[in-house]
């Protein structure tokens, strides 16, 4: 039997080529674009490519995530030679979505994964016409020796990221300086979540103004002065070291409209409501709402929650802040909603 003849895709009308591109995954589009200057020009001309969302992951492996169709495709740069060329695929959310979601990982071995990942990122951003990306997820101690060069690369090739998540595996490694360098050089538009173990209480990294959400999971380094400098819609502080006296001062400033005018939701670790009332609100006018009163509040990420009772304080412009406990299967958290 004769081998199948190559399909002359470039001889098709452009609209037909575009429909073919919509049916293949992003890695196949990139591979096609690398064949020649002509195929690269054709790929760059595809009008739907900018609609893809792109995430960059820097962890044990370096990854590029593509979201555009019902499938998720991940390009993984690895130093494990045995993984070269392997493809992992699994079906996700089959019981929820009408069409199964396919999660596909494509592995590429490299002797220098960081440098090759940077080159591939730059090429992807060019083909998909991206100046900004959806998410940057960085493990700050994964490539400590190359953190600065990675951040410099991102700064040179990205205008901004919408969501940034920073983490750390080994808390003994000091990544304060690199974390500050990233925060000072990468524009974050919407959400920042950090699970880094900051060691210096005088940590000088800056937060983007007016974030939709700021979540600091290890916030022992956040003192009162740093708290007053935060101006985000949703603020989540876990393990904070701010005293009851300082919280008292903070809420007085909020009532007087001297701080946090954009704040809509504040979330802290568990604390006893009666103790909070006695130690923080003792000289602040407040109202304890009857437990029989049900109200619906907007919490983080525009989610809503129906709650009973709560404690209200009022700002001078008439805005109300309600304190309450949110109960989950894994525990309780102390929250404040502004409405």
TrEMBL record:
InterPro entries for this protein: F-box_dom, F-box_Sdz-33
Alphabetical list of Pfam families matching this protein: F-box, FBA_2
Domain F-box: 6-52
Protein name (record): F-box domain-containing protein
């Amino acid at each position: 039997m004769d081998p199948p003849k190559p399909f002359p895709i470039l001889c098709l009308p452009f609209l037909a080529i575009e429909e073919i591109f919509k049916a293949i995954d992003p890695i196949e589009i990139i591979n096609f674009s690398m064949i020649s200057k002509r195929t690269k020009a054709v790929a760059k001309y595809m009008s739907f490519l900018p609609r893809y969302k792109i995430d960059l992951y820097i962890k044990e492996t370096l990854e590029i995530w593509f979201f555009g169709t019902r499938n998720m495709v991940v390009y993984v740069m690895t130093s494990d030679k045995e993984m070269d060329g392997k493809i992992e695929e699994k079906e996700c959310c089959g019981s929820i979505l009408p069409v199964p979601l396919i999660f596909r990982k494509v592995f590429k071995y490299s002797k220098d994964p960081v440098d090759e990942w940077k080159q591939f990122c730059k090429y992807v951003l060019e083909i998909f016409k991206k100046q900004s990306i959806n998410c940057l997820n960085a493990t700050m101690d994964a490539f400590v020796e190359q953190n600065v060069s990675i951040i410099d690369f991102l700064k040179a090739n990205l205008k901004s990221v919408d969501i940034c998540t920073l983490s750390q595996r080994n808390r003994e490694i000091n990544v304060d300086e690199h974390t500050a360098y990233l925060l000072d050089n990468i524009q974050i538009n919407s959400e920042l979540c950090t699970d880094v173990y900051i060691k210096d209480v005088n940590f000088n990294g800056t937060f983007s103004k007016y974030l939709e959400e700021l979540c600091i999971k290890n916030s022992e380094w956040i003192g009162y002065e740093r708290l007053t400098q935060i101006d985000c819609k949703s603020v989540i502080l876990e393990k904070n070291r701010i005293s009851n006296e300082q919280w008292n001062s903070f809420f007085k400033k909020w009532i007087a409209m001297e701080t946090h005018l954009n704040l809509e939701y504040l979330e802290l670790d568990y604390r006893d409501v009666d103790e909070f009332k006695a130690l923080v609100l003792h000289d602040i006018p407040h109202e304890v709402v009857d437990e029989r009163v049900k109200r619906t509040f907007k919490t983080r990420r525009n989610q809503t929650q129906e709650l009973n009772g709560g404690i209200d304080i009022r700002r001078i412009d008439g805005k109300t802040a309600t304190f309450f406990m949110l109960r989950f299967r894994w525990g309780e958290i102390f929250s404040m909603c502004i409405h």
